[in-house]
Amino acid sequence: MPAPDLPLLIDAALEAGKIATQFSGRTAQRWDKPDGAGPVTEADLAVNAMLEQRLPAARPGYGWLSEETEDTSDRLTKSRVFIIDPIDGTRSFAEGSRTWAHSLAIAEQGEVTAAVIYLPLRDLLYAAAKGQGATLNGAPIAVSHVPDLEMAEILAAKPNLDAHHWRQGQVPDFKRNYRPSLAYRMALVGQGRFDGMLTLRPSWEWDIAAGDLIIREAGGICSNRQGQPLRFNNAHPRLNGVLAASTGIHAALYAQLDPDSSGIAS
Question: Which residues are annotated as a binding site?
Fold first, then answer.
């Protein structure tokens, strides 16, 4: 990873926050994407336009993957690629919530090497670079080390606790909590505020790329629902769920998941 990549993402995320907060979520123009792909607002598009102009100009050899840009196969020819969600948690943004985030990452040969998750309305900037640890507002962070799954607090949408996802239909006995932004959920696990997170449905790369590195650099493990490491810049940029936690909690969750269950949870 070129040394300036993380500062580049941090500066871009801060600028994204300035742009997004100029819009009022409840009054920002909003459209529904085709095929039930969710909402998009004028704030998403304004942030994406700035990032798409600024980041590739700074790194002309990198590919580009963003939720709000039509995807092309050109990025597959690049060894490094930007993976961007201009606003993760668009529904929350449109409702006037403070839990939406900008999620910016760079992957090299499928592995994320620099990452930022920024919540401007909460003044929270999570960042990580490969081999350099993870930080929140410049201070080092680490995953929690709760010893037993029964003591753990896990971020997950309620459908993930449907019995068919778990061996013999036995849902683990942990405390469930929820945040609407998937990127924020992952950042909170990296911070140690929660002990793990899971989403068992297919997940877009732009929602999870930055959080993957932040959790790993904070001492945790990220995998798909089959326990395999996450790899990015795939031809179809969607991964088979996310399971993230400290080593022990990750192992305990994975051991109780039904490997034959289809991923339909949120």
Answer: 67, 85, 87-88, 207
